């Protein structure tokens, strides 16, 4: 390594969620490793790129548990290149892609194609979830062992499951394979045609409600199955207060579960749907106000382990329809960190370390991946965040191919900047 490949960040705030520390340091970075870190570094090699870090934050790159790729099959929604650019702009150095591509990731050929396609993409590492049933139909299991050998990060059908006998078989087969199984806690038969969370606001706004029991009964059932089978399970997209209570109950009894919620469920709730903005149509729907508060508290207490982006691009034409007819989903990779920091860290609800754990080290743990402290000799998989820098997401400033977000054209404070 030559001195020209070194960067020194002077007096930058370093957040380390692994050691649970926050301190101001000088940090010398190489192309792939942290070279040195201390309260003050002297004897810096000549030609080192020196950056004044005052007012900036250095911390591990963010990790997204699950998001959608439009490629292959729906490249007009999002390509892997635009997804990578969006991830890098938002500070995500690792993104796990859901298997709902066309064709789906339920076979080695599709998995290998995507791995080869993303091998040359820089700045972000893509992982890929595999379906545990063919075409995610919930009927016939995929070749789980073959997909594990091929390198899937884990398995999910990314939808509620009614076939509990099949889920039991999947738990049996996956136990020795040591790969995470992510399950959407939802019984579709209870969901019906609901487009927002059932309650006062669904009645007020005249929209069909999706009852909280859709999620709660599924969580309770999965907890019973996991307790009996002892195969670890990750619960995706937790969105209700009752589900948080049930997960707390399960963890207190040593049931091997982890859980995540999505970032928009922490910032908005059913009251916001009064705007009928189709970008607020999500699945699961935004919770009622008490659900949002329970999720925020669940992150604080460690009941909910991680925050996922669930980034899902749609074209302007697809989303420019009445709320109840809009496909569920929104983009978010570029917005998650600044908006959560602005609304939950700056308000004193969470510390910066709590947010970073939920967006970086804990998602890695949920995926069964190694976490590294911010120390000399460890990978320099780090990002710099300016919590004071303001910007406005517009079709021209967003890296995502589409811009289906309720924060379009609204000024945001906080942005990831390059080193």
Kindly describe this structure.
The chain has 419 residues and is an alpha/beta fold. The chain is 30% helix and 21% strand. It has helices at 80-90, 108-118, 144-150, 164-174, 188-191, 200-205, 213-229, 241-252, 264-267, 289-301, 316-319, 336-345, 352-366, and strands at 7-16, 21-29, 34-38, 49-52, 57-60, 62-67, 92-97, 125-130, 154-155, 182-184, 196-197, 209-210, 233-236, 257-262, 306-308, 382-391, 412-417. Strands 1, 2, 3, 4, 5, 16 and 17 form a seven-stranded mixed β-sheet that branches. 51% of the residues are buried. The mean pLDDT is 96.
Low-confidence stretches: none
Helix count, DSSP H or I runs of 4 or more residues: 13
Q: List the secondary-structure elements in sequence, H or E.
A: EEEEEEHEHEHEHEHEHEHEHEHHEHHHEE
Averaging pLDDT over every residue, what do you get? 96
Number of strands: 17
- Percentage of residues in strands: 15-25%
Compute the CA-based radius of gyration.
21 Å
Proportion of helical residues: 25-40%
Query: What is the molecular shape?
Result: globular
Sheet having the most strands: 7 strands, mixed
Briefly note the structural class of the backbone. alpha/beta
Q: What distance lies between the first and last C-alpha atoms, to the nearest angstrom? A: 18 Å
